[in-house]
Amino acid sequence: MTVIKLLEKVENALEKDLCDHCLGRLFAQLGTGITNAERGKSLRISYAMFTSEEQRKEVPEEPENCELCSDLFNEVEKFADLAAGDLQEYEFRDFLIGSRIDPEIEENEEKIWTELNLTTGEPIKSEVNREVGKLVQEMIEKEVNLETPDIKAIIDTRFDSVDIEISPLFIYGRYKKLSREIPQTKWTCKRCRGKGCDKCGGTGKMYETSVEEIIGGPLVEMTSGKDFTLHGMGREDIDAKMLGDGRPFVIEIKEPIERKIDLKKFERMVNESEMVQIHSLEFTEKEKVVELKQARAIKTYRVDISLKEAIEGARFKKVKYELVGQEISQRTPRRVDHRRADKIRKRKIRDLKLISMESTSMTLDITCDAGTYVKEFVHGDEGRTQPNLAEMFETKCEVDKLDVMKIHYPEGEKDEKI
Ligand SMILES: [Zn+2]
Ligand SMILES: [Zn+2]
Fold this sequence. Notes:
Blueprint: H1 3-14, H2 20-26, H3 36-50, H4 76-87, E1 94-100, H5 103-115, H6 124-140, E2 143-144, E3 151-156, E4 161-166, E5 169-177, H7 211-223, E6 227-232, E7 242-254, H8 263-271, E8 276-284, H9 287-294, E9 298-307, H10 313-323, E10 327-331, E11 344-358, E12 361-368, H11 374-379, E13 385-386, H12 389-393, E14 397-408
Parallel strand pairs: 1-2, 1-3
Antiparallel strand pairs: 3-4, 5-7, 5-8, 6-7, 9-12, 9-14, 10-11, 10-13, 11-12
The structure holds zinc ion (ZN) (2 copies).
The site of one zinc ion has 8 residues, from loops.
């Protein structure tokens, strides 16, 4: 915009009764590093300096009553006091100020933009948030965080009230599940949908507890939070143990009052349970949940297998030689038929390791791609998985027990034969 053009626009704006904030904000996108109030004041001065060639002209004064904001900016300190007061009751590292402005004021502002044909303005809400934020920052000595604040204070400028929105707390770790009787997450009773009935003994749940509840319970107490959700990197079956160094997870606590909790203490509290153990805890952000959900980690399973007839060690070696490094094709298993579309998945067998073999039973470590149906790879699922161990051993195989031994995550870990 040329200077002449700008002065023309300023001249039109000065015909309205606008405070320095509102005047400056109409041109907010011109020049950074100063406040709208400073910009407004300097526009008044520039106008007086550059439009009077003949004689000195007086700098137009800021009017008493602003027709755009109804002098809202006189109340900024009061809003900051209110917000700071309410924020004191919580524990947080950083914060953000939001606001609800009288809709009439916002409409008013847009009308003026149109009338003066301006595209350089900034919405009043942004300025209120920023100016209140600056004051609160000084008052409570904590930083504003525009991206991922721990907490938000939303000011309603009409009613002088503040709503506090607490961001969830996310903690990353790995869990071991030592029980074959609990699911990963809370499982609501199908019949009563959580209300409590005869079938579930009034608990509203299909299982007494879960990995999620054992981890989330102590944490919700320590943080005085409202509720919790476990985000696992995949899940094991209820009757499978999760062993080795455990499965990566993020536990999310909703509306925590306290955030700076002692992770070691949290770990000890969970580990008092005989069913679940956790370790390697650290504070994390929401993005970690997405990362875990997208990860496609290779896994190692320990499988106890019953064979109809004993096989010789030499046969096992031959089968291992033929299978390791090969892809298998798996049609959607019979046991999940009703829930998923029938399609063929290709997965790679990465390693087979014989742990023990005794006549008609063997224990095997199977390392394979994410999403491999391991039980089906063992028994063949009536030929729906090809190749499979039963066919290659030339005897019927049944899975007695299956545990997850290792989740190869993060990638790039030093793993043998992968
Ligand atoms: Zn104003
Ligand atoms: Zn029920």
